[in-house]
Amino acid sequence: MVEQAQFSKALLHPKHWVLWLGVGLGRLVSMLPLNWQMGLGKGIGRLMMKLAKGRVHTARRNLELCFPDATAEEHQQLLERNFEETGKAIFDTVSAWWWSNSRVQRHMDITGQEHVQKTLENGQGVILFAVHCLPLEMGARIFGQFNPGIGVYRPHNNPVMEYLQVKGRLRSNKALIPKRDVRQMVRSLRAPDVIWYTADQDFGRSSAVFIPFFEMPEAATITGGTMLAKLGKAKVLPFFVERNADDKGYSIKISEPLEDFPGESELADAIRGNHIIEDLISRNKAQYMWLHRRFKTRPNQDDPSHYSK
Predict the structure, then answer these.
(1) Which of 12, 120, 158, 309 has its CA 20 to 30 A from that of 165?
(2) Are 48 and 84 in contact (CB under 8 A)?
(3) pTM of the prediction?
(4) Contact at 8 Å (CB) between 257 and 235?
(5) What is the spatial distance between Cα 278 and Cα 272, in angstroms, rounded to a whole number?
């Protein structure tokens, strides 16, 4: 469990200077009004769409596979909006890591926190069942305003980025747990405490089942939610965050704990979980992380890739 960001002189090595320059620029931009930041982000997103052709291809294929009944024009419109929202997400993260609590509170609206409090008061841990919405970093910061929890994260390969993300995320979390440390997650839930859990990405064949995801009949889906809920004696609460349409704030909705979860089997729970994920994504499709290769793992290893050009 990580409870403090570790700074060392090695982070100041000249090879990291360009990154630190970007950090300084980001810190300055975070002082701008939020809608100004979003305007810059929108422009960056449009530039990304022209330069990051591989990511454009991945996002387009995901939209085609998930929503085959949409027209080519509808796919293109959603793709363009998604890249604009992706550019804005850069500043969601910058603001989440550097804004003061008072400034965060001026730009947030949250409902459903009473479900979290009631669950904890009953002596049960809380699993916030989230999806990779683009403003998720800000969602965690907002949630931490009333109930700091335990963040589950992937340690960054770059030491400067690892320092920054740990320091930034600990502004709204008690601690961070590497995503493979299941034992510590269970301990935290039994405390009881709150942890974040996502099951909407392709983590490979290990511990996965192939079940429908939107119109894709066989998407590799992890089943860890069942194990965490059982071993941690915890409740699962769907969590959703979005950036408001006027780009001036964020809204969070936390739903009531799922009834009868865990259910009859890991498979049934995973299918139910994907239905919830689809509902959360559909609330704001443009603000979902479509750039991830969600369907890279095939049921048969010899099957051709969905992302072949």
Answers:
(1) 120
(2) no
(3) 0.93
(4) yes
(5) 10
